[in-house]
């Protein structure tokens, strides 16, 4: 049974979709004024793991994500660049999709720019005004927090911290104080994009876009709404206030939030300048799969401190998977199925499912994979593996890939690895024949290929220098 920590209650709760077999899930997308950094991508990777697991449980998923293509930062940058917001945001939106693909992040079923939903947003704001939840001030429209008594429930903010009545009209992240927030902003600059609405010419605030898009695509009550922890307040609190004021129904049953990626103890953020984009790391020679592996290896509710040592360790772990799969694919086996090995696989299979069911414990899920690899390597060395064991293990790795997206493609390396594999096999043969001179010659030959070998109980391990 899948259990997820629901920010709304603070509890680990059993999850299943409310209505039939389909999970209706909304995740807040990127603000496309620049390239995403790997902190942002950590959140999208966590949501990807959730997505993969929900589908793995046999549910159908309807997953919606917005692309924030209008906010203060975007407008300012576009004006600076002398472009309209569509032209300015297009390359960053493209880059975001490319990064996701590189990191094996599956694409949500519906991804649309916020500005495709202007009529829905105008409709929502109009209804909020009508029912007294929103009011004009100057040329803009604000949400009246005092009209919504449960404001603060998600973030558990004390009422006195809310400073009711004061207004704020920026819609960037990291606003310090919760106050009446802007729903519709009158243009401040002649070049600012604007739309006509019955309540005045303007453009939407940040929060209203998610309420409008989520409810239009998924109905009034979603099964799951996700984001990074910095979204809890004010963004998600405001989404709840806007949506529930209009529908009178709970906006989302489960709120799930991913913890931050840190750098030296601080949140990785554009504004702090302590960030790496995916491109930065790829330019330094890192395999994107190692980056994904690192992000997956720490459960989403724990902070993850980014270091290059951590990234190197992720790379070594991937090498272990790669080596095992290579050995498995390239060895010869006798026909049949060794039940002891099948039992080891059954255990690993159960452990993987149980780990992900337990609030997406990806660290435990990877431990299940490495448990199998360890036993599998011993069995390979002892010649205990049989043909059917090989195919069932390889099939399971397809499941591991579906759930975690971290299985290396062995094929890419097969040509080099075949040579290494065959030299290692010849060396082991020489050692069995006690021809140590030959074994040493082969070790040297491997060294010349930049390959270091080590003989262990689990077999001969190798790695690149
Ligand atoms: P943005 O593009 O700024 O709208 O952010 C996109 C997503 O990245 C949001 O869900 C944020 O919660 C998330 N995010 C921002 N910084 C970090 C970080 N350092 N670690 C993890 N997630 C982050
Ligand atoms: Zn949102």
Number of helices: 14
DSSP strand (E) fraction? 15-25%
Unreliable spans are 172-178
What is the CATH T-level topology of the largest domain?
A: Rossmann fold
Describe the strand arrangement of the main beta sheet, using strand numbers.
Answer: 5-4-3-11-12
What is the CA-atom radius of gyration, in angstroms? 26 Å
The CATH superfamily of the largest domain is HUPs
> Which bin fits the share of residues in helices?
40-55%
Q: Which ions, cofactors or small ligands are bound in this entry? A: adenosine monophosphate, zinc ion
How far apart, in Å, are the first and last alpha carbons? 44 Å
How many β-strand runs?
Answer: 17
What's the story with the biggest beta sheet?
5 strands, parallel
- Can you give the mean pLDDT? 92
Assign an overall shape.
elongated
Task: Give the C-level CATH assignment of the largest domain.
Answer: Alpha Beta
Key traits:
single chain; Rossmann fold; alpha/beta; 17% strand; 5-stranded parallel β-sheet; 465 residues; binds zinc ion; 2 domains; binds adenosine monophosphate
Quick summary of this structure?
With 465 residues, the chain is of the alpha/beta class. It has helices at 38-56, 72-81, 85-102, 118-130, 206-218, 232-247, 278-283, 288-297, 308-330, 339-357, 362-381, 387-404, 411-432, 436-448; strands at 3-6, 11-14, 22-27, 60-67, 110-113, 134-137, 140-143, 167-168, 180-185, 203-204, 222-228, 252-258, 261-263, 266-267, 304-305, 451-456, 459-464. The chain is built from 14 helices and 17 strands.
């Amino acid at each position: 049974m899948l259990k997820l920590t629901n920010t709304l209650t603070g509890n680990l709760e059993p999850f299943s979709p409310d209505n039939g077999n389909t999970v209706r899930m909304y995740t807040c997308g990127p603000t496309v004024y620049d390239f995403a950094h790997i902190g942002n991508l950590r959140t999208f990777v966590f949501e990807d793991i959730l997505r993969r697991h929900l589908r793995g449980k046999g549910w159908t998923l309807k997953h919606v994500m917005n692309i924030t293509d209008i906010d203060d930062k975007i407008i300012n940058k576009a004006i600076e660049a002398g472009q309209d917001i569509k032209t300015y945001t297009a390359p960053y939106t493209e880059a975001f999709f490319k990064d996701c693909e590189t990191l094996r992040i599956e694409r949500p079923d519906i991804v649309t720019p916020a500005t495709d939903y202007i009529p829905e947003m105008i409709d929502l704001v109009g209804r909020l005004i009508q029912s007294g939840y929103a009011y004009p001030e100057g040329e803009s429209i604000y949400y009246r927090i005092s009209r919504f008594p449960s404001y603060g429930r998600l973030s558990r903010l004390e009422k006195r911290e809310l400073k009711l009545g004061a207004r704020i009209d920026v819609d960037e992240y990291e606003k310090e104080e919760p106050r009446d927030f802007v729903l519709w902003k009158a243009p401040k600059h002649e070049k600012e994009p604007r739309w006509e609405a019955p309540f005045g010419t303007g453009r939407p605030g940040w929060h209203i876009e998610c309420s409008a898009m989520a409810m239009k695509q998924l109905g009034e009550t979603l099964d799951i709404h996700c984001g990074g922890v910095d979204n809890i307040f004010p963004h998600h609190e405001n989404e709840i206030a806007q949506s529930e004021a209009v529908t009178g129904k709970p906006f989302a049953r489960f709120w799930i939030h991913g913890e931050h990626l840190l750098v030296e103890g601080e949140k990785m953020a554009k504004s702090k300048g302590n960030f790496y984009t995916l491109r930065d790391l790829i330019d330094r020679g890192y395999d994107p799969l190692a980056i994904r592996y690192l992000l997956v290896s720490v459960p989403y509710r724990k902070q993850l401190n980014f270091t290059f040592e951590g990234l190197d360790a992720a790379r070594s772990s991937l090498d272990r998977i790669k080596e095992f799969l290579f050995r498995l694919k390239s060895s010869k086996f006798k026909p049949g199925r060794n039940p002891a090995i099948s039992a080891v696989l059954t255990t690993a299979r159960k452990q993987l499912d149980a780990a992900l069911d337990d609030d997406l414990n990806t660290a435990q899920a990877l431990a299940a994979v490495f448990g199998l690899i360890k036993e599998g390597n011993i069995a390979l060395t002892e010649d205990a593996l049989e043909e059917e064991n090989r195919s069932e293990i390889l099939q399971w790795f397809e499941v591991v890939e579906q759930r975690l997206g971290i299985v290396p493609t062995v094929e890419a390396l097969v040509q080099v690895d075949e040579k290494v594999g065959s030299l290692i096999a010849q060396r082991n043969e020489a050692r069995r024949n006690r021809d140590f001179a030959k074994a040493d010659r082969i070790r040297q030959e491997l060294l010349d290929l930049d390959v270091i070998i080590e003989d262990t109980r689990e077999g001969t391990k190798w790695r690149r220098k």
